[in-house]
Amino acid sequence: MTVMEQRGAYRPTPPPAWQPRTDPAPLLPDAEPHRVLGTEAAAQADPELLRRLYAQLVLGRRYNAQATALTKQGRLAVYPSSTGQEACEVAAALVLQERDWLFPSYRDTLAAVARGVDPVEALTLLRGDWHTGYDPHEHRVAPLCTPLATQLPHAVGLAHAARLKGDDVVALALVGDGGTSEGDFHEALNFAAVWQAPVVFLVQNNGFAISVPLAKQTAAPSLAHKAVGYGMPGRLVDGNDAVAVHEVLGDAVRHARAGGGPTLVEAVTYRIEAHTNADDATRYRGDAEVETWREHDPILLLERELTARGLLDDETKQAARDAAETLAADLRARMNQDATLDPMDLFAHVYAEPTPQLREQRALLRAELEAEGEEGR
């Protein structure tokens, strides 16, 4: 006799007939990406916000150009440029409050800089001479994440833990379209929705996962539509419209902070430069395609709006350019200084308290270095 055959054994009741747990209609994204610039809504945009976004976009474009040049000079091992995607990067940083957290991917150095991270420290990981390069807790910016999408579950965990502690914190996690093909993306969105964690996911859909176009990654109507399957709202926005991205992300952050749970935002943008300096983008896309997107440049779109409203003159333009050149010159000068490396730093900041194995390895390395020093005398 089996356990289930015994008299009085527990027998689960049949599951109820299937029914939607929530109405999917409010979760669906709009059919077209949300836009502000070039529409009637642009007239209502805050002039100070427009000016601030413009200054940051110009700064970001110059930052990308200088970092790319540093790779050619051998001062950076690799640099994944965000040229063309600056509106997403800047808006993500500016929409957060000081207590909130930003979880960037490897392409999001500009977002980290816009959040307040030192430009040189933001590039340290890509230079290969230190762990993260900056203090994540000081800036509320998680370490730049090179593995695809692994930062997303971390963002959910932090946001969920903050809510359990009663902290008024929102996490904003950035990921590329290629990252949505990773299992971490599924796990993060599922946990976030089940726990109603105060987290916002921003997918920068720049068209390619290295050389793989989006059409070969997914057959979904849009990446924003994936939100419905997890039970959260999906928003679709023009990723080159800085005002629209700021507006959509602002709504999502306020929604999360008020206890409404997570939101998945897809920003439709384009990667003007190659995947990294090690990539040859001409092998998988044509110049005509790139030039078409240059006409939809985020800086150009904002310049048109500012000029039309009389908010941008030659003096303001030059001030933005001068600030960008100052940043580039400082970045160039500091990156051209050889770093002073201490091999013992390998064991720093691995754990709060070093494990016995780490202490043993540290002692062995120190002994080897001391022996080499004595031999060289």
TrEMBL record:
Region (Disordered): 1-32
Pfam families given in the database record: E1_dh
Record keyword Iron present: no
Domain of life: Bacteria
Record key words, sorted: Oxidoreductase, Pyruvate, Thiamine pyrophosphate
CDD domains recorded: TPP_E1_PDC_ADC_BCADC (cd02000)
InterPro entries tied to this protein: Alpha-ketoacid_DH_E1_comp (IPR050771), DH_E1 (IPR001017), PdhA/BkdA (IPR017596), THDP-binding (IPR029061)
Domain Dehydrogenase E1 component residues, every copy: 59-326
Gene Ontology MF terms: magnesium ion binding; oxidoreductase activity, acting on the aldehyde or oxo group of donors, disulfide as acceptor
Cofactor(s) annotated in UniProt: thiamine diphosphate
GO biological process terms on file: branched-chain amino acid catabolic process
Annotated protein name in UniProt: Pyruvate dehydrogenase E1 component subunit alpha
Naturally occurring in which organism (per UniProt): Streptomyces aurantiogriseus
Lineage, broadest ranks: Bacteria, Bacillati, Actinomycetota, Actinomycetes, Kitasatosporales
